[in-house]
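Entry 12.
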Amino acid sequence: MRDEEIKALFDQQAAGYDKQWAGMAPIREALYLLLDALFIDLPADARILCVGTGTGAEIAHLAERFPGWRFTALDPSGAMLEVCRQRAERGGFAERCDFHEGYLDTLAPGAVYDGATCFLVSQFLLDPAVRTGFFAQIARRLKPGALLASVDLAADIHSPAYEVLLPGWMTLMSAVGVDAQTLERARAAYARDVAVLPTQQVAGIIQAAGFNAPVQFFQAGLMHGWVSRHATDV
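Predicted 3D structure (tokens):
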């Protein structure tokens, strides 16, 4: 799936996206609980880059948890970013956010960040070299030693474990109210449009982009999360 197709897909889903995935909130909250513990030592006035922020759920959480932080909300989908902006206005933290419609290479040069989040984004980059380049663009935006928290679907799709995890993941989404059309779209995307790679391969891609060896801190079904520190010698 090309960039413009992904953007169009998320533009179409923006208005109902949060409601559609509301049943997965327990997984999201567990992820955020661990994210807090990892980011707790960042500066009180930290600047955080949120790549592919979507409707801004992680920004809303972090803005409440860390009232001195500022955020750059980056997403190619203008519709998703508008939902993010509305969330920030309702939450009273919009003045701490810069909203940028586009990709990493469209950000103004010179900005550097104390930390970054990238949740369920890089999996749409099917070419491993392009995916490495994507993380390298994030690395170039970070201060030496800054933290990246990234989450993607990951598994060895040729392993017996995947034969257990995939049906379980689909059953979970169905049980929490994800509609049948969305489930079928997700199943088709996993086979065609999402790079579901073994966890060690994803970690290797991140490390090759200019980070120290990533540490896996989270798993829920097919979702895996890594924390990576920007290498100080790059």
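Annotation: The mean pLDDT is 92. The longest strand covers residues 142-153.
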